[in-house]
């Protein structure tokens, strides 16, 4: 493994963003997360993650209840929040925990209300508040969630690391975020800060840049095809006459409560066979197939078959476009394992989506035994050929839908099994989303997706598949220091590059949309 260190220098300019903030419920005190409890032998504790999740969830449920004439069932409302809500919460929690894992902040007392840095920590807290509100007003929501996580961390640390509780105080210290409120003398207590790990939500923002007209290359769509394949989408080529009808494919994928039951590709000219499982929580199922099929046979769990291209039948109806098929299963759906057989002269992509609230989020993490022991989330994709922990969070479960999950299977691009990962619960709390953790040893060197397997309360099998393909990396770039960015001043960012693959030459470039970055290193060998 080779590594290299470099420096980016950025000139920061002043800019103004309008703002707003959602302030969470007050915190009383806390200890580490599951992995921190294991590494420090501290049990029966609350965590940054637990407090943050419950605060956002409680405020959200109270807001939803306030919009209705009658208060609804909180358990039912929580189960309907869905994947998108928990992905956003995960971004806040990730930023919260990163304060304890990032080298530039984990030992700085200003971020944790340590070493009697009460005044400077309060200034930092108000800066997070301002940045969050400005970002929301500017509709920079990802930036807002990042600063909101930092704000929550410091705010939670105040009540845990200072002597506020020992002073007999049981109320919120309003002066922290409201300077006009009276200040109270507060000192640092003798507490050791430990924090939890985060879960992921991973998203991609694609920006298209206009360029001058030039001769069109026959390979001009290859990039988009690769991106859609890795992200679990479809590349659709259609005609002007079909474009309105094809738009139903987009509606299928963007509707609420859609889960993936199968996502595979096939490069074989022979008949390919794929299976997917329908459980009792799935209300409708739609299949999307891109490519040109010469034969397609659908078989139900009761072993009833229908040749979709040649006949009408009792199982499904098919719509054909140029290079695209949309197959809708007839209700009532038969629970169990369905089989799809297809033959083509070229490449096929299969995507099976269902209507269900039960889904999952995931991320990869590694153990850290530094200042704050625990599981640290891996930024970006996991490193191929080395061990990593897979952390899974199931969403959509409630009093009316119960399920347990035992393992995850890493699947290759054509649906082949690469590795099975046994999952264990990382938390016994019923008040926070349960996290399932398993060791991936090693991370595959090829792209893969994740199939989560378990059973419902009646013992019936239940499966969900991740939408995107995970692309393992051999290169890691880690930021070693992240200084405060002050308008009108330069800032130095130290970073480290590690190559876990074969030695080769690299060219390094860096840019931003304002032209502030200046880089000293151009070429290196690792």
Detailed description of the structure:
The chain is α+β, with helices and mostly antiparallel strands and 526 residues long. The chain has four domains: 14-176, no CATH class; 222-355, Sandwich (Jelly Rolls), CATH 2.60.120; 359-465, Immunoglobulin-like (Sandwich); 475-525, no CATH class. It has helices at 34-40, 48-66, 74-79, 82-101, 118-137, 141-161, 222-230, 243-254, and strands at residues 2-11, 258-266, 272-278, 285-290, 293-299, 305-307, 316-321, 324-329, 336-344, 348-355, 359-368, 374-377, 388-395, 403-411, 417-422, 424-425, 435-440, 449-456, 461-465, 475-479, 490-499, 505-507, 517-519, 523-525. The strands form six sheets. Strands 2-10-4-8-7 form a five-stranded antiparallel β-sheet, with helices on one face. A five-stranded antiparallel β-sheet has the order 12-11-13-17-16. It has a four-stranded antiparallel β-sheet with strand order 20-21-1-23, with no helix packed on it. The relative contact order is 0.16. The model is unreliable at 5-35, 37-44 and 188-213 (pLDDT under 50).
* CA-CA gap between termini: 8 Å
Helix content: 10-25%
Radius of gyration, whole Å: 25 Å
Sheet with most strands = 5 strands, antiparallel
Total separate domains: 4
What percentage of amino acids are in beta strands?
25-35%
Number of strands: 24
Question: DSSP helix count?
Answer: 8
Given the C-alpha coordinates, what overall shape results?
globular
Unreliable segments of 5+ consecutive residues: 5-35, 37-44, 188-213
Decide which structural class fits the backbone: alpha+beta
Task: Give the strand line-up of the largest sheet.
Answer: 2-10-4-8-7
Average pLDDT, to the nearest integer? 76
């Amino acid at each position: 493994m080779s590594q290299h260190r470099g420096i980016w220098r950025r000139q920061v300019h002043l800019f103004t963003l309008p703002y707003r903030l959602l302030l969470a419920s007050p915190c009383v005190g806390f200890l580490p997360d599951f992995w921190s409890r294991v590494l420090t032998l501290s049990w029966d504790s609350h965590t940054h993650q637990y407090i943050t999740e419950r605060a956002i969830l409680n405020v959200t449920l109270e807001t939803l209840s306030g919009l209705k004439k009658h208060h609804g069932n909180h358990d039912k409302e929580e189960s309907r929040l869905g994947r998108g809500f928990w992905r956003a919460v995960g971004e806040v929690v990730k930023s919260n925990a990163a304060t304890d894992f990032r080298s530039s902040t984990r030992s700085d007392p200003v971020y944790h209300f340590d070493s009697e840095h009460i005044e400077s920590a309060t200034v930092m807290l108000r800066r997070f508040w301002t940045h969050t509100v400005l970002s929301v007003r500017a509709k920079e929501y990802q930036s807002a969630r990042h600063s909101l996580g930092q704000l929550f961390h410091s705010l939670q640390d105040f009540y845990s690391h200072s002597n506020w509780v020992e002073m007999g105080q049981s109320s919120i210290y309003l002066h922290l975020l409201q300077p006009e409120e009276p200040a109270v003398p507060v000192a640092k207590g003798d507490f050791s800060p430990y924090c939890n790990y985060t879960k992921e939500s991973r998203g991609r923002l694609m920006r298209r840049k206009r360029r001058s007209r030039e001769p069109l290359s026959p390979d001009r769509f290859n990039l988009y095809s690769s991106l859609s394949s890795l992200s679990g989408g479809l590349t659709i080529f259609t005609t002007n006459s079909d474009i309105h009808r094809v738009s139903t494919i987009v509606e299928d994928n963007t509707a609420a409560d859609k889960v993936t039951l199968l996502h595979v590709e096939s490069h074989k000219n022979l008949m390919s066979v794929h299976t997917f499982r329908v459980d009792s929580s799935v209300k409708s199922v739609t299949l999307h197939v891109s490519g040109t099929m010469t034969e397609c046979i659908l078989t139900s769990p009761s072993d009833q078959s229908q040749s979709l291209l040649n006949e009408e039948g009792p199982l499904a109806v098919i719509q054909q476009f140029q290079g695209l098929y949309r197959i809708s299963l007839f209700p009532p759906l038969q629970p169990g394992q369905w089989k799809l057989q297809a033959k083509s002269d070229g490449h096929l992509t299969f995507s099976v989506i269902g209507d269900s609230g039960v889904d999952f989020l995931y991320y990869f993490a590694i153990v850290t035994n530094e200042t704050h022991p625990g599981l640290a989330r891996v930024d970006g994709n996991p490193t191929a050929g080395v061990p990593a922990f897979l952390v899974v969070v199931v969403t959509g479960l409630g009093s009316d839908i119960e399920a347990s999950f035992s393992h995850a299977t890493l699947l290759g691009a054509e649906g082949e099994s690469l590795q099975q990962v046994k999952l264990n619960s990382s938390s016994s709390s019923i008040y926070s989303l349960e996290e399932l953790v398993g060791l991936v040893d090693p991370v595959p060197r090829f792209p893969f997706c994740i199939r989560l397997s378990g059973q419902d309360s009646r013992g019936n099998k239940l499966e969900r598949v991740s939408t995107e393909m995970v692309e393992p990396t051999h290169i890691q770039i880690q930021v070693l220091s992240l200084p405060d960015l002050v308008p009108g001043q330069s800032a130095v960012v130290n970073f480290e590059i590690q190559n876990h693959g074969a030695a080769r030459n690299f060219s390094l470039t860096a840019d931003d949309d304002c032209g502030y970055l200046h880089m000293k290193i151009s070429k290196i060998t690792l």
